Amino acid sequence: MILTITLNPSMDYIYHIDHFNLGKQNRFNTPTKMPGGKGINASRTIASLNTEVLAFIFLGGTNGKIIYKELQKEKFSNYHIKIEEESRNAITIMHDNETHTEIVEKGPLISEEKKIETFNSILEIISANHINIVSVNGSVNSENEFFYNELLEVLRTKINHEIIILMDVSKEKLKNIVNKSKYRPDFIKPNLFEFGELYDKEITEKSEVIEMLKLHNIDIPYVLVSCGGDGAVAKMKNKIYDVSIPSIQLVNPTGSGDATVGGVAYSFENHFSDEEILRQAMACGVANAMESGVGVVSQENVNAISKQITIKEVHSF
């Protein structure tokens, strides 16, 4: 079974309009509404591929009740911890020839006391459910800048069986994991901008990613750098790959990275080869962008797209 961890879930509202008028009134049709947050979106993808997944989440306030109610309609199970503060909203506006604008609340602050409860609950869940894959997804609003480093240490030192750990985090949380942690995840997935932040360098091209990976050889087995419509660059253990994806009719790209991570978790659970992992993961990300929902994929689309993914080995260590 796969466990996803979302410590800052949201209620997502996705609007579509031909032209967005900044500073003026804009009238929209009824939005697509669904629970969100990176781990929830990844869970939705995994469940769409008929694989068992449990989503661990925080829920609070009226929004938390709405999210919980909506989660009962999903194909995956959830375990939630109640918090006092209100769970957040996230708004996506698709407009002006495939431009998307996001308005995302910061979310509730997580105390040190709640952190300890969280870590203990996660350990109990992993032990009770024979979890093999743990995916830590998205932001956490905590004054502890090493929150995820401490979670990673707990996962590496307190579990009695071997697990694969995916960490889809960004900004300082990612930098701290890569540069300041004794313990390592098995997988990270920065985008171009986030990858550049690791080295305080602006990176805009796949060729730059390839050169940086050659130069630094990050001590994490699997590094997938997503490059939008240009596909991705991946370090899979001792090899670097340039991955290209097909062009599609874009509907909503929000959550494509989360769907990609869901595809990776699914692939690890099913013991895919490295190239099969890349093919499945990228196909999930592309398939998500063809849907109005977030983290939503169809098995039919994933299968068709996976055949159109091009994978080229560009370096070996």
From TrEMBL:
PROSITE patterns: PFKB_KINASES_2. Keywords: ATP-binding, Kinase, Lactose metabolism, Nucleotide-binding, Transferase. NCBIfam families: 1-PFK. This is Tagatose-6-phosphate kinase. Pathway: Carbohydrate metabolism; D-tagatose 6-phosphate degradation; D-glyceraldehyde 3-phosphate and glycerone phosphate from D-tagatose 6-phosphate: step 1/2. The lineage of its organism: Bacteria, Bacillati, Bacillota, Bacilli, Lactobacillales. It comes from the Bacteria. Belongs to the carbohydrate kinase PfkB family. LacC subfamily. It holds the Pfam family PfkB. GO terms for cellular component: cytosol. One of its GO terms (biological process) is D-tagatose 6-phosphate catabolic process. SUPFAM superfamilies: Ribokinase-like (SSF53613). InterPro entries: Carboh/pur_kinase_PfkB_CS, PfkB_dom, Ribokinase-like, Tagatose/fructose_Pkinase. It catalyses: D-tagatofuranose 6-phosphate + ATP = D-tagatofuranose 1,6-bisphosphate + ADP + H(+). Its EC number is 2.7.1.144. GO terms for molecular function: ATP binding; phosphofructokinase activity; tagatose-6-phosphate kinase activity.
